């Protein structure tokens, strides 16, 4: 009985390992910037700020090789040639595998200009070969088990050169120090998604592996200031542009539309009289044409064609007639 169950248990464990290994590799249509290959490295976006992203990657298997060079570009070119020969048939089965993305370059932090550095280039194995990849014929190639990890990511366009990679790595570390994030200081990854034949809309990244809990907020950014509403003070002096006329406060329900249109000034002379107090209307009691609105008016001053018409009519009024009859104005 036990012998019958044991093979089934082995198969179940093998399937679980296989599914777990393939969980980080998926079709390229799941990514907006990984479009040249059929399969890409999948990730879970943890958070995003204006300066970087935090991503979570599942365990995956890669084929890698090391190259010693003074410049990253030279070492990456040598290593790329070895890995490309592996996926195109230089393996014990003569198998040809599809190119995947991205390509990782592990770059040491402590490098000197006068000394060469060791750069490690890695290709992501396709999902079908994550569990059982073919053995390389070149002894300089080996397999790398990438663990589950959170990484800080900064993206940039153009070409991934030594200068641009170092620049964006410096900008990312500067931001990580500012937000007090913990990360691995010994190396970082230069990440490329595009083939050398692609000239426009290229996508590159810089990765730093997070240590501990990833930081998604800025602890040094102050809380947005809150300005409380000032208490109401009856004796407080209001704004000069809204100071009412203290001699009389007009009732808004008694102001006619013609008075507002002809003269926005809030003066008692412009308020229609009550029937019991209606005096004889003389030209001097009408609105004075061309008079500027009072500084104490609560109505806004609007420049428009009506004001221009009144001013133009005023220029044509004889000098001996200081008061114009509103009916003589051509306001049509």
Summarize the structure.
The chain has five helices and eleven strands.
If you had to describe this structure to a student in words, what would you say it looks like?
The chain has 332 residues and is of the alpha+beta class. It has a domain at 16-209: Multidrug-efflux Transporter 1 Regulator Bmrr, Chain A. It has helices at residues 2-22, 72-87, 162-178, 257-262, 305-315; strands spanning 25-27, 39-41, 44-48, 53-57, 60-69, 103-108, 117-124, 141-146, 149-156, 187-192, 204-209. Strands 3-4-9-11-10-6-7-5-8 form a nine-stranded antiparallel sheet. A two-stranded antiparallel sheet has the order 1-2. A hairpin with an 8-residue loop joins strand 6 (103-108) and strand 7 (117-124). The relative contact order is 0.11.
Give the key terms.
two-stranded antiparallel sheet; Reg_factor_effector_dom_sf; 332 residues; Heme-binding protein 1; 9-stranded antiparallel sheet; 5 helices; single chain; signal; disordered C terminus; heme binding; Multidrug-efflux Transporter 1 Regulator Bmrr, Chain A
CATH class of the domain at 16-209: Alpha Beta
**Residue windows where pLDDT falls under 50 for at least 5 positions:** 1-22, 222-270, 281-332
| CATH T-level topology of the domain at 16-209 | Multidrug-efflux Transporter 1 Regulator Bmrr, Chain A
| Percentage of residues assigned to helices | 10-25%
The gyration radius over C-alpha positions equals 39 Å
CATH homologous group name of the domain at 16-209:
Regulatory factor, effector binding domain
Give me the count of strands: 11
Count of helices?
5
The largest β sheet comes out as: 9 strands, antiparallel
Sum up the overall morphology in one term: globular
Structural class: alpha+beta
Strand percentage lies at 15-25%
* Helix-strand string: HEEEEEHEEEEHEEHH
Strand order of the largest sheet: 3-4-9-11-10-6-7-5-8
For the termini, the CA-CA separation is 107 Å
pLDDT average, as an integer?
A: 73
Provide the CATH architecture of the domain at 16-209. Answer: Alpha-Beta Barrel
